[in-house]
Amino acid sequence: MTKLAYLECPTGIAGDMCLGALVDVGVPLEYLTEQLQNLGIAQEYELRAELVHRNGQLATKVHVDLLEEHHHDQHAHHHGRHLPEIEQLITQAQLPLRAHEWSLAVFRQLAVAEGAVHGIPPEKVHFHEVGAVDAIIDIVGTCLGLDWLEIDKLYCSALPTGGGTVKAAHGRLPVPVPAVLKLWQMRNCPVYSNGIERELVTPTGAAIATTLATDFGAAPTMTLQKIGLGAGSIDLPIPNILRLWLGEARGQRSEVNTSDTSSCTETIAVLETQIDDLNPQAIGYIFDALFAAGAVDVFTQPIGMKKSRPGILLSVICPRERVCHCETILFQETTTLGIRHSLQERTILPREIQQVATKYGSVRVKIARLGEKIVNVQPEYEDCAQLAKEHQIAWREIHRQALHSWYSNA
User: Which N-terminal stretch is annotated as signal sequence (predicted)?
Assistant: First the structure.
């Protein structure tokens, strides 16, 4: 079963909030401490966790306490770390494979964004002294935690923009800071304002989410098993808590598996709009365009609309990841000003395609099963239509022969 995690970020995301949520959900702090020691910078920080209240809710706060003595000693000749040095630390640490790969990917993403902002190559990006240790522990610790939980896929909510300004190495910056904006742009993240004028998404938090999340938006369909609450540093009008949902996928599939003999469920998007002022000739064109964009099915129903106008209800069924493409076509090709969309579960039967020979030519036949039993056998319409045209024979005769041929050989 696929293990899923969902980062729900009503007050944004920061590295320490990720660590807090992971420890809260059951990742042992001792495990993280032990693995992080392999980075060879244990003399620079201490890791500790505590339970705190945020607006009356109990959550876990993880602190990365920087050891001042070390920083004063090093300050004269060590003003931070560049990407190659951090990559070397991670590679030498002999972390679990996924944690190692994810950590490198997150740092690379962060350096690419910072580099783009400053107009320099990622390798030249300078992670400032204090921030570097924080970022290393937050990023590598988060990757270790997700690996320990054996997460297969991570999802993330839309992210709040925040506002105001924040103090940075080169003076004050507007929030969201440039690197965060760049990371959002790189992944086309959905963002919104929750009205809180503070820094809500940090560069580290944005790098973790944009690198590791499969998708952004609503929670995936899942059987919910655990919730971890990671506290942020400051008090806000709403609880400053990152919520980590853990669960298992419910029978979702990417391709039809012909070896699987039971029906299964998948999440599908349903788009609807009603139209009363469009030339009917456009509808046929829209059908073709929607199917080309990945729609599973498209259909219309006649309806009565306001001002006694006859109209149609146009419905599109498509995979979640094709919603944007299908909506773009609807807005571009119809007169509609609004589209409703919802996510629904549908139960599907495993099916396979077989070729059968008729005296007029070969026809593909779709076979659907329920358990071991075959419950539906249907020759493909297009194949029958092509042979019917070629041989000037009735379509239903080709269809009948294809069925007869399949049952004769079954």
Answer: none
